[in-house]
Amino acid sequence: MNHDTYPHAFTAFPDQNSVLPHNASYLVQQKYNYENVSTAWENYDWLTAKEAQMVVNSGLGIYRAVTPEGLVIISLNSDVWYYFNLYAYIGANKIDMTGMFGKLITYLLEAEANNQAVWLIQHVNVGGSTDYEALPAATDLYYQIIDRFNNTIRSTFFGHTHDDELGVFYTNNATEQTAETAANVAYIMPSVTAYTNLNAGFRYYLVDPDTFDIIDSLTYYANLSNTNDWTANGDVT
Q: Which of 22, 29, 86, 234 has the highest Cβ tally under 10 A?
């Protein structure tokens, strides 16, 4: 996510030194960030020691989990398309510089073969109100993947904007935007962290237990303009 490093949004990948220009004044020095994050995940028993080391070694920024119910959840590092991330411009004219999208396609092919539903989660969105914050090459590739696997990908989820909104993915890279060409939905959710002219909020979803399609959603928010009038209900303190 774009808030995890300083300067803001400068997120590199551990294996990018090899693609820097020969006269670069300094190397990409962000391996420490992956090491810190993977160590924390290991300490919380979210990952084994071997899995934690893979986070550092691969540098792909893609992770997959399968729920007991059989839903496949894939997390992507959206900094590869975030236009504020200067490291994303290294080799930006090459297809899938980090290899993350290739791994995503492999995961989706496996899920398709096993008739498994997939949710994609990431931070910086490629739809909704911040289209302009996503670099074109990665966005185009992401759109093509959504189009190809729209029967396997049940939903995509983003944050970043702090807004309660949604975006729509269309087939053929949105060359025709109609109800018939709509391929998927990008659910872009608000944040518990308040933002300029935005209230704190969170959203939960009603999910079909068999298909894992999103049936409905409900968003709660705290009106920060009248905090003096708030009253406690139930267990809220």
A: 86
